[in-house]
Amino acid sequence: MTYTILLTCKHTVTDSEPRCTGQKHYCRLCCDFKIAVRLVNVKSISCFNCRFARSYGSSEVEAVRAASSHLSRYPDHSIALRSDRVLVETLDGLNVGSRLIAVLRQANAGHQTSLKNLALGTRQLELGE
Question: Domains of the chain: which residue ranges?
Fold first, then answer.
């Protein structure tokens, strides 16, 4: 099994063993040794019906959004959502919308609360409270 490791330069490398954070790895893009920050669960999607396949780093939101976009163009296709090459879920035209909404809500959990608090604070200033 291969592991994806995030380095201090924000690039990733793959390794056959999960080394501890703080160890040095060679970054091919920087041409220098960098320190490992953490292991990354790589999210990827691939279509069962065509050659469409992409990797999205640790962003599940972008992976599901891309799957939704592909399924809107090709509604009869099915897409595999994987985390570190392990099948997490199979998305199709029927369940991708609800999955996208769930992922967006989870990713932006504090966003609506912040907006409500901001609106409440603005309203209190208008009323002079």
Answer: 3-40, 43-125
